[in-house]
């Protein structure tokens, strides 16, 4: 028999599930029913508010994922939902549970995340890998926590000296090797192997070939930008004239809102030659003249009206990597972005010119890819 309190909870969860559905177009949610039980009414209202404020889709997805994790952790660690605003002691507990020293834990089982909290999060699918969290993950979740606190009209202790000191000391105590989003860059030689797996005239091969070429040639576009690309963002440009060769087709891609831009600026990148031909071939075969450019393909060749998810772009690239006889674990969609700048360095293209196409805002970030291409083989690395 369901108690009155339990019945009320179920009704609330059902209502939240419906409310989450109303923002699904902006914020696709795969674990809707789980989230509906985990999140509070205020959580869902805050998310709806962020949607209405026009926050970027990827940021919203990340904040929703972080909020679900934080609520699950709070329930497991304290037995209660997240308090708003969170006291400084709870923030310090979060850091202690996630940034800990594996060597110290061997001598002190109480160090780090308690076993019962770990088991609860693992059984719900929130924890997968063993060991402490990456500092970047902890900082991102604290930033999401701070953002959600701010949007509730509250102040938090996220900038308190004790919290900053706790994070700094925890990171210093356990040195970690920073891993790239993609272990290996998809440079031109790797890209040619991937394209060789897309040589037929099938819809899937035409689509994947266009995805690979457009993503790379447009400056290493992010998977979210490729998944969300729409016909309305494309404009034809005058062909590029060549000496003793036919002119090359050219189009402009108006990026709109991206990870680093608000959408108010008209950020434009250009495609010339083969990528344009690959894109036109896919759109002509799929009969796409408006809406989303890259879409799902059904079992019998039917074209979906909905765009591919960003994660689908990543999976497509990994599938092509495997088909090419390479290691899927070594490559991801981000490899196209790092690969573009690495290839630019290999071809001695000036960094400012490469950044005009990649639209990196940070010279430091862009140059980290650019410089690594020449450092390994440079004289400084071959002193002996």
UniProtKB/TrEMBL annotation:
GO terms for biological process: chromosome segregation; DNA integration; DNA recombination. It holds the Pfam family Phage_integrase. PROSITE patterns: TYR_RECOMBINASE. The keyword DNA-binding applies. CDD domains: INT_Cre_C. Residues 354-384 are annotated as: Disordered. Keywords: Chromosome partition, DNA integration, DNA recombination, DNA-binding. Residues 181-383 form the Tyr recombinase domain. Residues 363-375 have a biased composition (Polar residues). GO terms for molecular function: DNA binding. SUPFAM superfamilies: DNA breaking-rejoining enzymes (SSF56349), lambda integrase-like, N-terminal domain (SSF47823). PANTHER family: PHAGE INTEGRASE-RELATED, TYROSINE RECOMBINASE XERC. This is Integrase family protein. The lineage of its organism: Bacteria, Pseudomonadati, Pseudomonadota, Alphaproteobacteria, Hyphomicrobiales.
């Amino acid at each position: 028999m369901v108690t009155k309190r339990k019945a009320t909870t179920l009704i609330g969860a059902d209502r939240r599930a419906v409310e989450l559905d109303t923002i699904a177009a902006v914020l696709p949610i795969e674990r809707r029913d789980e989230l509906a039980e985990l999140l509070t009414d205020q959580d869902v209202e805050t998310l709806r508010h962020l949607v209405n404020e026009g926050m970027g889709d990827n940021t919203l997805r990340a904040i929703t994922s972080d909020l679900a994790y934080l609520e699950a952790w709070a329930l497991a660690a304290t037995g209660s939902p997240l308090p708003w605003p969170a006291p400084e002691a709870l923030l310090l507990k979060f850091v202690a549970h996630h940034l800990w020293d594996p060597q110290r834990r061997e001598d002190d089982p109480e160090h780090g995340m308690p076993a019962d909290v770990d088991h609860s999060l693992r059984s719900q699918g929130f924890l997968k890998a063993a060991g402490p969290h990456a500092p970047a993950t902890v900082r991102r979740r604290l930033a999401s926590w701070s953002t959600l606190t701010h949007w509730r009209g509250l102040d938090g202790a996220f900038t308190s000296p004790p919290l900053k000191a706790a994070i700094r000391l925890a990171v210093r105590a356990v040195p970690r090797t920073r891993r790239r989003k993609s272990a290996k860059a998809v440079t031109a030689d790797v890209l040619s192997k991937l394209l060789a797996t897309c040589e037929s005239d099938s819809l899937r091969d035409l689509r994947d070939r266009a995805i690979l070429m457009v993503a790379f040639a447009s400056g290493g576009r992010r998977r979210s930008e490729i998944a969300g690309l729409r016909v309305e963002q494309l404009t034809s440009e005058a062909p590029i004239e060549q000496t003793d060769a036919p002119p090359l087709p050219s189009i402009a891609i108006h990026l709109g809102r991206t990870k680093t831009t608000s959408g108010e600026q008209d950020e434009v990148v250009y495609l010339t030659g083969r990528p344009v031909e690959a894109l036109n071939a896919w759109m002509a075969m799929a009969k796409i003249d408006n809406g989303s450019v890259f879409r799902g393909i059904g079992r019998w060749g039917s074209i979906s009206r909905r765009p591919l998810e960003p994660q689908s772009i990543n999976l497509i690239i990994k599938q092509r990597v495997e088909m090419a006889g390479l290691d899927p674990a070594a490559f991801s969609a981000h490899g196209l972005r790092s690969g573009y700048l690495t290839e630019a360095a290999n071809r001695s293209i000036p960094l400012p010119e490469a950044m005009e196409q990649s639209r990196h805002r940070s010279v430091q970030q862009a140059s980290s890819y650019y410089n690594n291409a020449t450092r390994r083989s440079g004289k400084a690395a071959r002193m002996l």
